[in-house]
Every structure is written in C-alpha cells, then in structure tokens.
Amino acid sequence: MIIKLPQAVVLALQHLNQHGYQAYAVGGCIRDQLLGIEPNDWDICTNALPEEMLACFSGEYPVYETGLKHGTLTVRVLDMLLEITTFRVDGEYTDHRRPDQVTFTSNLEQDLARRDFTINAMAYHPEIGLQDPFEGRMDLNKKLIRCVGNARQRFEEDALRMLRGLRFAATLGYQMEEQTKLCILQQYPLLNYVAKERITVELNRLLLGTDAVTVLREYAAVFTYLIPEIKPMIGFEQHNPHHCYDVWEHTLHALSGSERVLPVRWAVLLHDIGKPHTFTCDEHGIGHFYGHPKYSEELTRQILQRLRMDHQMVQTVSTLVRYHDVTIEPSPHHIKRWLNRLGEEVFFLLLQVKWADASGQGKLGMDRLELLRKLEQTAQEIIQQRQCFSLKDLAVNGDDLIRLGVPQGKEIRTLLNFLLDQVIEEKLHNQQDHLLAAAKKNIRSVK
User: What is the value of pTM for the model shown?
Assistant: First the structure.
C-alpha cells in the first residue's frame, strides 16, 4: 500500500532522517489519504526533541516556534506549513481539555496511543510503510469510530473528543463503536469544560455532514445539553393536518432535504424551535403556532450568540428563521420586493430553507415545493434580465435629484424609494428621462 505524500512532506521526512531521526506523516492526513480524500493539513511526528528539531531545520527552512512547550514546531517547506511534533506521552488533563504537561518519548506507538480515535492513530513513512498498532485501517474498512484504548479515559482527558467523534460519524457516515457510544452518552456533560468557540467549530462541521440527521437523532441528549432550547421540540405533537411528524422529527426530515450550506442548515435546525412555546389548540382540536417565526428568531439569536457565532452568521440565520413561514407570491413585482428586502443571496437561501421546511412535511408539502420551483425560476429570470429591484439598479441616483433642485437629506432617499416602488410595480420604466420626469412631479408630494 502506497500513500502519496506531497513533495514538501517527503523533503521534511528525508531531512529529519538524514540527521539521524525517525519521522512519519501522522494522524488525519493518513486517514484522509486512505479514504481517497485530499488532506487539508499534513502533520509530522518525530523522535527528535524540540531543540534537536530547531537545530535540524534552522538555517535551511523557516521555523516558527508555535508550540515548543508541547514539542511542536511549524516549518515552511516549499510554501507548505508543516506542524512537526516530538513523540510524546501526555500527562494528566485536569481541565478535561489539554494535558498539564507532556513527556517526550522515542517510541512511536506510545505517541499514537495518546490520540483520540483509531482512524487518527496511524503514521506513514514511504520506506517503512503504514504504522497502525491500533487497527485504524481495519476500522476505516468497517466504517467504525472507535477510541484508542479506554474510551472513558479518552473523553475525560479531552471532552471535545466526543464532539469530534460525532462529527466524524456525521461527515463520514460511520457508526460509533458500542463502548465509545456508551461513554459519549454518559460523559457528554464534560463538554461544559470546552470553550464555546471550539464547540461551534465542531457543530458547524457536523451539521454539514451527509449523515448529520442520523447523528442528531441518535445523540439528541448531547445536542439538547449543548442547546437546551431543542429539548421541548422532541416528541412535541403538532395536532395539525399540515404536519405528519412531531416538531423534532419534522425538523430532522427538513434537514434531510436541505442543502449543505451552513446558514441554511442552522436555520432549518432552529426554524421551529419556538413552536412548543406558541402552541394553542382550537375548539376542533387543531393545533396552531401563531407567532412562532418571531419567537423562533428570538431564540435563534440567543443560541447563536451564546455559541459565539460571528455577527454576520447570526444576522443571516435569524433572518432566515424570521421569514421561513412567510408567503411569497409568484408574481414578479412581489418577488422583486423580497429581493429588495433581503438581497439576492439571502433571498435564495430563504428559498432553500422553505424548500427544506416543505420537504419535512412529507407528501403534505408537495404543493409548496411546486410553488417554490416557480418562485426560484421567476427570481432567476428577474436577475438574468437585470430587472430593477434595488436602489443600486435604479437609473437615477441622489446626484441626479440634487441637480433637479431636491435638497440633500431625507427627501432624496424618500423620493428614490418612491421611484423604485413605481418601477417595481411596473408603473414606470427604469429609464432616466422617465424617472426624472416623475421626480419633478412628485418632489413636493413625497416630502
């Protein structure tokens, strides 16, 4: 079996070997290569001590002391940044996140034994071959996520490993080995020790996984711990002829039908999170959720801010949740108004959310899907034909109105919006002479 290493990695391994040291490409890059995936990063481990690595590479390659305390240097080889780490054994993890101290070792197997999962505990050298003491390659073939050694100990050391395991299950479509699964379902409260930013990184990657829905369903207890607002959704019956699932199952079915685009995935996950709080039942026993989009938006904003999501993502996802249930008529002028309100990017993201929401209703949502196809087709035609739906598309601007004698200030904006409204309603052509003539007539009326 041959793993194809980038030239920069080969040169780094050879350089260490020529100075008398062992060295291997290690970890996720080997896993990805065995899966036929191009690795994002390449890591190297070696029996060279940090000061020996410094002496080995300094003067020949740029070296950055990025983690010298834990035995890690970053070396630039052929414009590739490589993290090179001394074989090590980790000490006690009192914060359930990082070792208090590390001990360097000359034994590769001891280094691999400290890693999280067997599929990440493999090393490779082009002349020596694959080093796989914990049968990671076998687990790849079995499509199995299994801890190296004792699962309980691995998760007590670093609680984030639980979310990493779930992320691998979601992105690779793998099953969790039984003991590993049991320990996650018992130890997930340790995630309280993990920084919100790190949790969010893993949740983002998990949600984009092809098997995210399976993981969310199977490990709902973990996700309700991280996002307690989800818990009331589980098993909450809707008592409504438009829905054949409870709120949580509808959400999961909607996620199954959603595009793997991060703001869409978050919006679909949270779009009905306000439903249990807005439920009412009429005299016929029909359930209603009046005002649930607004309530869901408020909860969404709180959740994403708590997860330290960046401002733009919070705004986009909250907007999608707010409007997920709004009726958009298929007429061109109505679509142009929504394009104007949301912008092109968010408008089409909203259509994706609405599509997922409808698909999560099973056969009951088929009519909505047909309407959404028409909406998307009409919107694409509007954009391709460069029809006007925003102030930047208008054939006149503020300077044109100033030359007409309109005083600078609010009146210019008001008049421009009036002209845009007339163009959207197709009462005026988007031509400069038409718009200026209309502006002259309406200067006073729009004050």
Answer: 0.92
The closest alpha carbon to 251, from 286, 284, 281, 212, belongs to 212
* CA angle centred on 444, ends 440 and 445, rounded to 5°: 100
Higher per-residue pLDDT: 440 or 154 = 154
Average pLDDT of the residues in 186-197: 96
The Cα 75–Cα 68 span in angstroms is 12
DSSP codes, 342-368: H-HHHHHHHHHHHHHHHHTTGGGGHHH
Q: Rounded mean pLDDT of 38-54?
A: 94
The answer for 88, left when phi > 0, alpha when psi is -120 to 50, beta otherwise, is beta
Q: With 0-12 CB in 10 A as exposed, 13-18 as middle and 19+ as buried, what is 311? A: exposed
User: How many residues are recorded in the chain?
Assistant: 447
Residue 395 has pLDDT above 80, yes or no: yes
pLDDT greater than 90 at residue 76? yes
Q: Tell me: pLDDT of 163 over 90.
A: yes
> How far is 23 from 2, CA to CA, in rounded Å?
17
Q: Which two tokens stand for residue 242?
A: 């438009």
Give the span between the Cα atoms of 342 and 345, in whole angstroms: 8
Best CA proximity match to 90, nearest among 73, 71, 77: 71
CB atoms within 10 A of CB 196: 13
Q: Give the H/E segment covering residue 123.
A: strand 123-125
Any idea which residue has 């699932």 for tokens? Answer: 245
